[in-house]
Amino acid sequence: MQFKAYVAYGFSALLGVWLAWFVFDGMKAVEFHTKILTQQSIPSLMLARELAAGLNEQERILYEYYATTDERLYPQQFQPLHELLKQQLLDLAGLTGDTVQHNLLKQELGRIKNLSAELHSNLGGDVVNWDLARTQLSNLSEQRRQMLPQLETLIGVVNNDVETGYRQTLAEVSATSWSVVLFSTALLLASLLMGRYAANYIRLSISNERLAMFPKRNPNPILSLSPDLDILYQNPATQLLLNDMQLPPDPLQLFSAHLNDELLETQKSAVPVRFFQHQIRDRFLRYEVHWIRDVGAFDIHVQDLTQQMQAEARLIYQAYHHDLSGLENRLRFSDDVQALIEANVVFSVILVELAQYSRLLSHYGIDGMADIVTTTAQHLNNAVQNWQKSQLLRPQIYQIADASFAVVLTTDNDNGALHQLCTLLQSATGPSINTTVGELHVPLQLGITEFPRCSTQQVDLLLHAKIAIDQLPGGLSYFDHQTGSAHQRKLLLNDRLQHAIENNELELYFQPQMNISSRSLSGAETLLRWKMDGNFVSPAEFIPLAEQSGYILPLGDWILETAIKKTAAFQALLQQPIRIAVNISARQFMQPDFVLRVVQLLRDYQLRPDLLELEITESMVMENEQAGLAVLKALKSHGICLAIDDFGTGYSSLSYLKKFPIDKLKIDQSFIRSMPEHSKDQAIVLSLCQLAHNLEMRVIAEGVEEVEQLMLLTHFGCDAVQGYHFSRPLPEGAFLQFCAVNTLTAE
Q1: Distance (Å, rounded) from C-alpha 378 to C-alpha 356?
Q2: Taking 50 as the threshold, does the pLDDT of residue 2 lie above it?
Q3: What is the mean pLDDT of residues 182-198?
Q4: Is pLDDT above 90 for 730?
Q5: Residue of 117, 166, 172 lying closest to 139 (CA atoms)
Q6: Which of 118, 120, 88, 122 is nearest to 106 (CA)?
Q7: What is the b/e burial string over 300-328, where b = at least 16 CB atoms within 10 angstroms of the residue's CB?
Q8: Could you tell me which residue, 196 or 692, shows the higher pLDDT?
Q9: What Cα–Cα distance (Å) separates residue 305 from each residue in 116, 300, 302, 683?
Q10: Which of helix, strand or coil describes residue 70?
Q11: Does the pLDDT of residue 3 top 60, yes or no?
């Protein structure tokens, strides 16, 4: 018995030791799995959730930076948060041991850092490229979304680890419990207590896992609601937002009155996520509702969109308004006009431009000009508003360019109202306006077109109004089909003029100049003729076009060379010298190499310099007196004859006549035409003749067509004349015949 007792004792002891070891080993397993849960899996899950929230916060900061362009947001908020995310990512890698996921997430986080640095460089620069900024923000958002699947995968793995650890712990507890029951009630009670403790600890860990979804430091309110609208959880940001909005401390105040319906809609949805938005006074809130089916609760994430909505409103305002004047801009003009066209509404467009914009800009600079334009815009807008108060019609004014405005008026063919408004706009700036650069006279020029009578397409409206302005610069002009035809004519002439020399369409005509006393031929003036498609184009029509396009330089050079070449040929044919006069344009006269070009052409064609007479106008010399005097002296030093053309119509300054080396004065035909009937014109012509002779200059009168004119000029002592009385301008062959039947006398 004793032996049996020893055996039983020994067996019991061995069994007890084995059971104790079994229990110990089981407890060790429970402790091991519990430690993994508490020290690795659950912290990993919390870090992953915080990392995801931090990425959202990064994106919010960058959008705030884009909306406010506050450069302090980047170093003070974004960069510290980025460093925190890097540390959290490093801690997460240490807990999970997953270096592959860590490296991938680290690379993605680095890309976000680089993209944000590019955005910071753009927004912090002197000139912000808003299109690039929006693209950069889009790329940042896309980069963040690319990280979310990796984080979700990591969170899923950690969740699986938690679930697996939980089940393994339960299994170990169950095995230990049954073993202890077989050994003794005490061990059973102990094992049950251990199992209950472990189960409670695991349940507490699951609760902590849920709480990890609501990080306390999230700046946006996060709530958990039961289907009965009981608040299961709210983070500190919830009360902060309620206080900021001066609402009662009830979180349900943040939601719309239809919250029950919204929650029910989310609960029944196939995808249990819904977004809702509503406004509380001047604040805009957006909340994202998640139905968590397994816990029977709603998770709600609230976001205050007020700043974002205000930023969007500012962007929309900036997109449709001029940044200086605040008037609606070209984009809004296009939208409004297109809407009127689609509705087939009759309306007029009044284009208003500053008539002297370039001169004012060069004189007052960009800043001064900006104030002048802004002040002008205010005067125009006031004129429109004041006129509108007295009319049923409602015009709209736009600033479509730096110095261009457009007024749209639905006239319904009310030409009286349109003309009244145009007159008011034209006088809006009055004699002068008060600007930061002083009292200024700012003349306006207006062009008007009408839909659909004159312009049927949106793209034609401003073009036609501008054409109307060009037809009458500095005034008020209406576009019509005749104006359009004239513009098309200008375009055609301008295009053909550039190829006229190559196509041999240009020709020089020669108008004889006759000596009054001897009635002999003293020379001729060259006149340009252009024959396009068999018809002559008036010089009054194409010469201004050449000056506007800059083609006057090659055209003037062609005239000069051709005239010198023809003069040399005439001298060879006639066997005696003849002087030919050539008109010089202002731009040609002021070219740096003009004198060298003239001298070189004389040498090339072996023509005596005194047989070339260059005609210049008074204004050409007086625009830059010092430079003009230098050119005249240089020409005169080479023996070239110089004449003042159209004398009496320009500055008519007597001081330059004594300083400049002028050989001849040409009296403008405007004085000759009415001289027989008007004694004042006779007095002027007589005075000019006497003045020229006193200054040792010769006098020639142009536009002589009648005998009475010739007799008076003879009496006044005029030296030479040209005009239809003796001959019209002649082509080369006819001019040579004229020379053959008239005595040629050198002056």
Answers
A1: 18
A2: no
A3: 64
A4: yes
A5: 117
A6: 88
A7: bbbbbeeebbebeeeeeeeebbbeebebb
A8: 692
A9: 22, 15, 9, 84
A10: coil
A11: no
DSSP state of 660: S
Token output for 248: 């009662």
* Helices 458-471, 330-342: inter-axial angle, 10-degree rounding: 110
Query: Higher-confidence residue: 738 or 619?
Result: 738
Token match 């592959």: residue? 100
Distance CA(669)–CA(692), nearest Å, equals 17
User: Rounded to an integer, what distance in angstroms lies between the CA atom of residue 209 and that of residue 214?
Assistant: 10
- C-alpha 480/C-alpha 454 separation (Å) is 6
CATH code reported for the domain at 493-741: 3.20.20.450
Task: For residue range 604-627, list pLDDT tens digits in order.
Answer: 999 999 999 999 987 777 777 888
Q: Return mean pLDDT, the chain.
A: 83
- Both tokens of 255, joined, read 């939601």
CA distance 382 to 595: 54
Peptide bond into 248 cis (omega under 30): no
Q: Which of 29-33, 467-471, 634-638 has the lowest mean pLDDT?
A: 29-33
Please classify residue 354 by burial: count the beta carbons closer than 10 Å to its beta carbon, then call 0-12 exposed, 13-18 middle and 19+ buried.
buried
Dihedral angle of Cα 76, 81, 84, 90, to the nearest 10 degrees: -140
Specify whether the CB–CB gap between 640 and 614 falls below 8 A: yes
Residues 292 and 356: their CA atoms lie apart, in Å, by: 71
Instruction: Judge whether 547 and 587 are in contact, CB under 8 Å.
Output: yes
**Confidence (pLDDT) at 351:** 92
Calculated CA dihedral for residues 143, 149, 155, 161, nearest 10 degrees: -140
At 273, give phi and psi (nearest 5°): -140, 130
Q: How far apart are CA 91 and CA 84, in angstroms?
A: 10
- The domain limits of the chain are 2-211, 222-311, 322-479, 493-741
Contacts of 671 (CB under 8 A, 6+ apart): 648, 681, 684, 685, 688
Region of 689 (left: φ > 0; alpha: ψ -120 to 50; beta: rest) is alpha
Over the stretch 383-418, which tens digit does the pLDDT of each residue have?
A: 888 887 767 677 899 999 988 999 998 876 567 788
Collapsing DSSP to helix, strand or coil, 562 comes out as helix
Reading the block at residue 202, the tokens are: 């695991």
Q: Give CATH superfamily name and number for 322-479.
A: Reverse transcriptase/Diguanylate cyclase domain (3.30.70.270)
Could you give phi then psi for residue 647, rounded to 5 degrees? -65, 140
- Average pLDDT on 375-388 reads 89
Contact 523, 513 (CB under 8 A): yes
Q: Which amino acid is at 234?
A: Q
pLDDT in tens, 22-78: 667 767 766 776 777 677 777 777 777 777 788 788 778 888 878 887 888 888 888
* 271-277, Cβ contacts within 8 angstroms, sequence gap of 24 or more: 277/305
pTM for the structure as a whole: 0.51
pLDDT of residue 4: 47
Q: Answer yes or no: are the C-beta atoms of 600 and 662 closer than 8 Å.
A: no
Quick one: 222-311 is in which CATH superfamily? PAS domain (3.30.450.20)
Question: What pLDDT is recorded for position 499?
Answer: 79
Structure token pair of residue 364: 């007052």
Query: Which residue(s) pair with 433 in the sheet?
Result: 440
Q: Judge whether 53 and 215 are in contact, CB under 8 Å.
A: yes
Count other Cβ atoms within 10 Å, centred on residue 667.
29
What are the φ/ψ torsions at residue 476 (nearest 5 degrees)?
Answer: -120, 120
Q: Which residue has the higher pLDDT, 543 or 342?
A: 342
Q: What is the pLDDT of residue 5?
A: 43
Please state, in angstroms and as integers, the Cα–Cα distance from residue 20 to each residue in 10, 627, 731, following that order. 14, 118, 134
The one-character DSSP state at 354 is: E
Band (pLDDT 50/70/90 cuts) for residue 9 is low
Tally helices (H) and strands (E) across the chain.
26, 21
